[in-house]
Amino acid sequence: MTALDMVPAPLHAPKDYRSAVKPVWCPGCGDYSVLMALQKAFAALALPPESIAVVSGIGCSSRLPAYLDCYGFHGVHGRALAVATGLKIARPALTVVVVGGDGDGFSIGGNHFLHAARRNVDLAYIVMDNRVYGMTKGQPSPTTEPDWDSAIAPGGTGLRPFQPMVVALASGANFVGRGFASDPNGCARIIVEAIRHPGFAFVEIMSPCVTFRPDERAWKLRVHPTDAPPTDDPAEAAHRIMTGDGFGLGVIYAGTRAPYQPALAATSSLAALEQGFAV
Description:
The chain is α/β, with parallel strands linked by helices. It has a single domain (21-276), classed as Rossmann fold (3-Layer(aba) Sandwich). Helices cover 29% and strands 15% of the residues. It contains eight helices and eight strands, in the order H-E-E-H-E-H-H-E-H-E-H-E-E-H-E-H. Strands 2-1-3-4-6-5-8-7 form an eight-stranded mixed sheet, with helices on both faces. Strand 5 (175-180), helix 6 and strand 6 (201-206) form a beta-alpha-beta unit. Helix 3 packs across helix 4, helix 4 packs across helix 5 (164-171) and helix 5 (164-171) runs antiparallel to helix 7 (234-243).
């Protein structure tokens, strides 16, 4: 018997988290790789599917819970973090992961993003950022470059792009990292760290929209590992992000704040709950 024979078989394989629903993203969409990365991360963490809840809002990437074999909640536009926060506080034993896009998360969901980071509830928020509204046919999003020319915004919006990683840091996120969809193994490693790290973990994954932003195919030539290990100093992390080229991959910040988890009251009987709502 060799040493390899003595290694126990993994409890779960990535395929164990794959549902029977076939993804309907455009061919070449980066979200396929993020789906694969999530499956790899769950398997690496040996998480039973019934112990995971994936919550999303609206948008291309927000379809993702349907493609996973675990608990899922497809909410309304921009409200995924509100749902996930309540779920994690009520069911702290669950591994809660939130997925969405840059429009859902930083535009209509921007207020929830700020306060989810501030509360620091123990969940992971994964945003597939393609700098465009893909589902609604190519409008500029909060992270779109100011000079990106499109039929909806000829010549570009002229607006400064939203800086999600810095906003997450300023709002109190306890973990901040960036991945690239064309590197599913690298994304999986970051997601594993994000789920393991206590508190609110934010992961921005650059996920090219090859349909409405074919120029984003060139991202694969620009991405590179970050040039420094993670820091626990939010000011240093913010400086690295703001002075970087926007294509550095890896964990930028790993903080030490204690997660927010209020004490749960004893469960009342159904009759007692009904009496509390009697009029």
